[in-house]
Amino acid sequence: MSTDCKITDNIKIDVFGEVIGQKISSYLAPTMKEVPAEAELISHKLMIRAGLIRKLAAGIYSYLPMGLRSLRKVERIIRAEMNRFGSREVLLPAVQPAELWKESGRWEFYGPELLRFKDRHERDCIIGPTHEEVITDIIRREVRSFRDLPLNLFQIQTKFRDEIRPRFGLMRGREFIMKDAYSFDVDDQGADVSYKAMYQAYTNIFANCGLTFAIVEADSGSIGGSFSHEFMVTADSGEDGLIYCSSCSYAANLEKAELKDYPIEQAPIGPLTKVHTPACRHVPQLAAYMKTPESSIIKSMLFLGKDSEPVLVLIPGHREINLIKLKNALGGYEPTLADPDQAEKIMGVPMGYVTPIGAEVKILADLGVARMTSGVVGAGEADYHYTGAKPGVDFRIDQSLDLAVMVEGDPCPRCKTPVKVRRGIEVGHVFKLGTKYSKAMGANFTKPDGTDSPIIMGCYGIGLGRTLAASIEQNHDADGIIWPMALAPFQATLLPLQLQRQEVLQAALALFDELVESGVETLFDDRDERPGVKFKDADLLGIPLRVTISEKGLNQGLVELKRRDNREVTMLPVASAAQELLKLRDQALKTNRAG
User: Fold this and answer.
1) Measured between alpha carbons, how far is 27 from 456 in angstroms, rounded to an integer?
2) pLDDT tens digit string along 278-317?
3) Does the domain spanning 6-30+490-592 belong to CATH 3.40.50.800?
4) Of 455, 460, 434, 431, which Cα lies nearest the Cα of 143?
5) Residue 475's pLDDT is what?
6) Residue 120 CB: number of other CB atoms within 10 A?
7) 8 Å CB contact between 70 and 468
8) Long-range contacts made by residues 581-587, C-beta under 8 angstroms, separation at least 24?
9) HSE-up of 319 (CA within 13 Å, CB side)?
C-alpha cells in the first residue's frame, strides 16, 4: 500500500483512497457496555458491543465502519489468492430468473429457504443463495471450444437464504456476503488440478487471515457434486462437529463421517418370541424392562420421503440417525419423521411398537442392524415386542447402508484407531461438481475430434461474515476481541491521556503522523474521555497495538506500548516508537502469511 498521504483534519488516506489514519471523534464507532439480550455467541455479542454491526431484521445486519474495514481485509486476502491461482473476478446479478433453476432441477429441490417472488410481469424470480445456474448460463453462451478451457471465475457478492431460524449474528444469517468461484475443465484430470489449486488457495487464505482451521471431508448438500471438503475454524462454540483421527489423516464433518463398523453388545440368540412390554415405547425403558443392552434393540422409525412416501428406517437402539446420510439415501429429498398420528395410520400401530416384520413399506437398515444376528423389535401391537428377531430372516431389508451418527471413540474408517470429536465453524467449502449443472443446462464444449462434451465443473465458497465471526470466536478474552493483525480494522491505536496538555497532544499527533507515513493503520482516540473509558474501548475493539501517551511518560521520553494478544507492556522511547510498531506489525503479518 502506498503511504503517499493526503491529510485532512480528521483522516489520512493513501493515493488509492484507503484510510490509513483516522481520528475517532469523526468516526462512527459506537461501543456498548451492555451485553445485547438477543446475542448468544461471543462473536455476536462482541461485534455488536464493539460497534462492528447492527441488526436491521432477523438474520439481516448492517456493517458499520469498523466492521466494514475488517470485512474489506478478508476481501483483499481472498482477491490476492484467487488472482494468484488464476481465477478472474466477475459480478453476477442478485436477482435470478426461475427458468435457470428449473433447468438445473433445483427449483423444487432447494426448499423454502429459496426466496422466491414474482416481478411486475408475473415472472418467477429468486434472490440468489448461490450462483451455479447463472455462471453456467454465461459459460454455455460464451465457451465453444476446448481451446477456451480451463477457466476459473469468482465473485464477492451478497446472497440470501431464508433460514427458518437465523441466529448467532453473522454466523447464520439470512443475508450474507460470500465469495463464490467456479472452475470449468475439459476432463476429470483437469478438474482435479483446478480443485487442488482452489484447495491450496483456501489453505493460504485462512492461514493469511491468522486462523487455526481444519480441512475435512464434507457432504455436498444442495450444491451437489461427487465430493467436497470444508474448511472449519476450530472453536468450542462451533455448531458443526468435526471427527478426526490422531493416527492417520482422516477428518470429516460429523454429517459426512463414515461409520462402517462399531461395537454392538447383542442379546443371546433365541427363537422369535413375542413378549409383553407394558408402557415400553422408548429404548431406555425397554432395555431396562427386558434387562438387555440398548444396542440389542432395533429402533424402527418411520420417515416420509419424496411425495410423502413412507420409509421405515432401522438402527441399533444405542445410536442416532444421521439425517444427512438418510437424505442422501433418499436421493436428496429431505426426510420428515412421521408424527404419531401418521405413523399409526400408515403402520396400524402406535409409535414405539412399529415392526419391520411383515412391513409393506420400503425398509432401510443401518449397517449395524445388518450385522446383528438377532435383536428386539416392535411386535406391531401396543405393549408387545419380539425378541430373537433375525435381520434378513424374520424381516426383509431392502437396503443396508451407513445411517448412524459417528461418536467419539468409534473406529476410524481408514485405520480403525478410535476417533476424536471437536467443534468447528464452517468458513469455506470446495466442491467437485462434475457435470451436474453442465449436463442439465447444456454447457458443452467441442473436443479436438469435433464432438461435443459437457464441461466438468467445480465450485468454491467462502463466507466472509462467518470468517470474521469465527476469528472472534477463536480470538477473544473477557475484555473483548483480540484481532489477528491481518483482520484488525486498525493495526494500532493511540491513546493520549491528557489532551488538554499541549505537549501530550503534540507528541501524539507527531507519532500519529509517523505511523501513518510508514503505512501503519492507526486509530487516534482524540475523545475527551477518562483514561478508563479509552482503555476499555481499546480492549473491546481488539486493535493489536495500543500506545498510551501521557505526561508522566513523556517526562521520561517514553510512551507505553501494550499488545492486545499477550497483554505485554513495554516502554518505548518516543523517537523510536513508530519504527518499533512498524516492526511488530510486519512480524505479525509475516507469521501467518502463506505461500
Assistant:
1) 48
2) 989 899 999 999 999 999 999 999 999 888 899 999 999 9
3) yes
4) 455
5) 96
6) 5
7) yes
8) 581/492, 581/515, 581/520, 581/545, 581/547, 582/515, 582/518, 582/519, 582/520, 584/545, 585/485, 585/491, 585/492, 585/520, 585/544, 585/545
9) 32
User: How many alpha carbons fall within 13 Å on the CB side of residue 45?
Assistant: 17
Region 63-94+128-258+420-472: CATH code: 3.30.930.10
Q: What is the pLDDT of residue 221?
A: 55
- The string of pLDDT tens digits covering residues 52-67 is 999 999 999 999 999 9
Residue linked to cell 492486545? 564
Q: What is the pTM of this model?
A: 0.85
How far apart are alpha carbons 243 and 250 in whole angstroms?
8
What whole-number distance in Å separates Cα of residue 304 and Cα of residue 362? 11
Residue ranges per domain, the chain? 6-30+490-592, 63-94+128-258+420-472, 273-401
Which grid cell sits at 309? 412416501
Which tens digit of pLDDT belongs to each residue from 237-275? 888 889 999 898 898 988 888 888 888 877 778 899 999
- Nearest-angstrom CA–CA distance, 491 and 19: 12
Q: How far is CA 388 from the centre of its chain?
A: 45
Kindly report, residue by residue over 486-528, the tens digit of the pLDDT: 999 999 999 999 888 999 999 999 999 999 999 999 999 999 8
Q: The C-alpha cell of 483 is what?
A: 484481532
% of residues, the chain, pLDDT over 70: 96
273-401 maps to CATH 1.20.1440.20: no
C-beta separation of 427 from 213 below 8 A: yes
Q: What tens digit of pLDDT does each residue of 536-577 get?
A: 999 999 999 999 999 999 999 999 999 999 999 999 999 999
